[in-house]
Each structure stands twice: as C-alpha cells, then as structure tokens.
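Late entry, written up from scratch paper. The run itself happened at the end of the previous shift, but nothing got recorded in the book at the time, so transcribing now.
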Amino acid sequence: MAATKKRAPRTLEEALQALAAGLNPKKLHPFLETRTGPNCALCELKPHEGVHKGMSYDVDICIDVCPHCQHGETVLDLNYTSNMGRAWREAGFDIMSFHEAEAATLIKPLSAAIHALENDPYYKTLEPDNGWGSVDGSLRNFLKPILLACEKHPQGVFYVSG
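Output as recorded:
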C-alpha cells in the first residue's frame, strides 16, 4: 500500500495547526508563496520594517522569530541617543552593522567595546557637548543590557534602527 501524500496547508489555521504538530516552517514555503498582501501568512503581522534614520538607536532582540515576517517574542527593547554612535564605533562596535544578526554574533565585539569604553578615558572626550548621552549612561542603560540579553538569548535576532 502506497503512503498517501499530505496536502500543503491552504489556510492560516491549517498552517498554524501544522506548525503546532511539529511541521518544519520551511515546509510551509509553498503556502507562503500563495499568500499575497502586506501581512505575514503565519502571524498576520507586517514584515519587519528594517532600518530608518533617526535621532536615536532603537534595538530589539526577538526570539522564536517567524521565518516569513521576522517578528517574534521581544526579550529586549531599548533606545539610546545616537550621539554616542561615534564612541561605540571607535571602540569597535558599529551597532548598525548588526541589524538582523544572530545575538551570539554581538557578544565578542560588544564585550570588547564595553571593555574599551570602561578603561580608556579617550572615549569620554567623545561625549556630546549638548549633554545628550554619555559613556557611563550608554554602558549602564544600553550596551550592558544588550550584552546580557545576547548572552541569555544567543539565538535571538537583533534588530536596530537609528
């Protein structure tokens, strides 16, 4: 007796049931291709927006990310002034280059930058004259929390806009 081939999910409900039953999300590719419109076929969310220009860096680390729209459970959501971007880049951490990177890839360069920022007084000379941002504030309120979240969720996805 020949095995019967299961048909691909045709509705969002069928796709979610298949995922709950353990179907590999990559096997949903034919289903995803048949869906049109601005929203994800799996979660009904709009695809992840990507990078935009702004006065600050907005970062998220998400886990269990949908392979189609790039949304997932947010485990970190932070914002810090872009005035400190030059100091971070000079310390070896170009935050914008990590958009959509696996969190584990941030650990080594971010750790090195944190060490440099903590131990070299040069970086304090890069603090903005307008008072918006500081080495100490960026370490305490932004860079160290990002590092901790990356260590806790190394397979998470890091999103940044700024």
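The CA atoms of residues 57 and 162 lie 4 Å apart.
(Scratch paper discarded after transcription.)
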